[in-house]
Amino acid sequence: MRREWEPEELIEAWTLLDDDWDLVGNKTGATRLGFGVLLKFFEQEGRFPRHAGEVPKAAVDYVAGQVKVDPALFAEYRWSGSTIEYHRAQVREALGFRESTRADEDVLAGWLADKICPMVFTDEGLRAALLSRCRTLKIEPPGRPDRIVGAGRARFEREFCLHVLNGLSADSARSLWELATGEDGFLQELAPRLAQVRPSKELLGVYFEQLRNGMRELARAGLAHGDLSPYNVLAQDERIVMIDLPQVVDIVGNPKGMDFLMRDCHNMATWFTNRGLEIDEQELFADLLTMVF
């Protein structure tokens, strides 16, 4: 949110109206001021501020004057706990919004990949599009929109690569991947194998979501990697990339397609479980089958 506001802009954007006063009700002190600020901030941004520093001082002063509370008390408003959770619930209900779910995150990532990534190339632009989409759908944006942006971009890149790969002959595809992942290939210089890294438990979750999404995209195309293991997945910061794709297996057309898919699930579930993130290989296998049939 911008920091500078003209007086007429404050009046237009930050004035508490009739229905707003019903919500403010009998709240007092820092609670009264904090709620008023949350409400007007959400009306404009379609999200809640993450901390007091996100709210322009001029806006705090203006709202404080309306609710007749010393603006200095805004520093005492608690940004965690039952009070702010109740305030957020009140604001969502009043404005017709709802909290986002994990299913929403998957849908939003898919929307970014299909509709926005082909035209917008910066993370800032993708994040702005995501927040706008959430506002249109009346969904409170997830707490970590950058994760959805990353998932959407990764999905777009995977689909684009698969599209290109499917248009190449087997020999051309093999030559391309050897160029990228061979002993002197540029991917070898950029990132270590997944088997070589020791990610935190939180990062393990990020890696697994990306891996599962990649396996889903392959399964949706009727394919399994066929030789998936921590040794042909590259990891760099918060991103992973599956490599050695030219040997992908037709799950239905190949008599052992299901076996290859199950082996992929077993290899990766075992690695993540051994690193501290419990993954059920049967559940992963069943999830991927829903993409195939």
Characteristic key phrases:
two-stranded antiparallel ribbon, two-stranded antiparallel sheet, mainly alpha, Transferase(Phosphotransferase), domain 1, 293 residues, 60% helix, 3 domains
Written account of the structure:
The protein is mainly alpha-helical and 293 residues long. It folds into three domains: 7-95, no CATH class; 100-167, no CATH class; 168-293, Transferase(Phosphotransferase), domain 1 (Orthogonal Bundle). It has helices spanning 7-14, 18-24, 29-45, 57-67, 82-95, 102-116, 123-137, 145-166, 170-181, 186-190, 201-220, 257-274, 281-292, and strands at residues 223-224, 233-236, 239-242, 249-250. A hairpin with a 2-residue loop joins strand 2 (233-236) and strand 3. The protein is elongated and about 75 Å long. The two termini are 45 Å apart. The model has no long low-confidence stretch (mean pLDDT 88).
By CATH reckoning, the class of the largest domain would read: Mainly Alpha
**Helical element count?**
13
Mean pLDDT: 88
Could you list the spans in which at least 5 consecutive residues all have pLDDT below 50?
A: none
CATH fold name of the largest domain: Transferase(Phosphotransferase), domain 1
For the record, the CATH architecture of the largest domain stands as Orthogonal Bundle
Described by its quaternary structure, the protein is single chain
The major pleated sheet works out as: 2 strands, antiparallel
